[in-house]
Amino acid sequence: MLTTSNMASEETFKNFIIRIMDMLEGAYLVRYDLNLLPIFVALMEERSVTRAAERVGMTQPALSNALGRLRFMLQDQLFVRERYGIQPTPIALELSPVIAEALAMLDDAVLGQQDFDPVKAERVLTIAPNGYVEFVLVPAIVARLQKVAPGIKLRLTPYGNDLVETGVVSGTTALVLGRIVDPPENLVVQHMMDEGLSCIVRADHPDIGDSITREQFERLKHVNVVPPGRMRAGLFKALSQQQLRRDVAISVTNFFAVAEMVAVTDYCATLPNLICRKLAHDPRLKVLPPPVDLGTFPVEMAWHVRYRHDPAHRWLRTLIGEVAETLAATKATDV
Asked: Which CATH number characterizes residue 219's domain?
């Protein structure tokens, strides 16, 4: 995993050319069509000819033809077919980090020279927020974009069960926002803020006043929000560490359903503080601190290494970071 703190050194364009030629000399790529490099990377990351063709905007026959030229050039099969896709050969695995680094350096050199004016720019960027970020941060991000960059449009794609499904690992999705678990080496991860947890019950709950005890928490029925894949570990782990039992009556797939469930039942829900901050304005509900300290969880964003110096991408990352910082600074006084 790359972080924003370990990318300080920059090479001059001349040194970059010398280095890329040195890296590729053994593979004989400098004497051939360098347009084959992105195809190699797409095949490595997608492990599917069909998906790789879609990613690079080619027909499947055209990509198969390009793969044939790669095989001839490198004198290796590179990828072998299996039941559920393709798998790289040992030679392909050896070449992969060299080629990926070469492309990233080329992107850095070219994109770093481009100007970006957010006021005039017109671009569609795809991001993959988890349910929490979509509920809390995305409205504030869109409001900021409307004011400072009206031509920048966002397309949201599902967070999915893992990072591969979001498209961020292959680079087809610009950013993934949420809790990043076990990121691969080609992702840059940036911490935005830490978030805590609170409880909500209906305002006229017959058994709960201005606080909730451990015994009351364990006696109540609960509404659970089911996050995707391994993301569910956070709250479950915190409850387990505190040996706090939770009797789940219903599990929903998003935060939007929670308020309605709690408002018409005697159930309780344990949610992130910034979501509780929004729900606190609903007169049907009341927000309470949890009966024990459930700790915090990180909120992060991640992007493919090839976007590190893309001016538009870098500008958007800065804007999102500022929005998150503003929300984090005000949450303590508003909940």
From this structure: 3.40.190.10
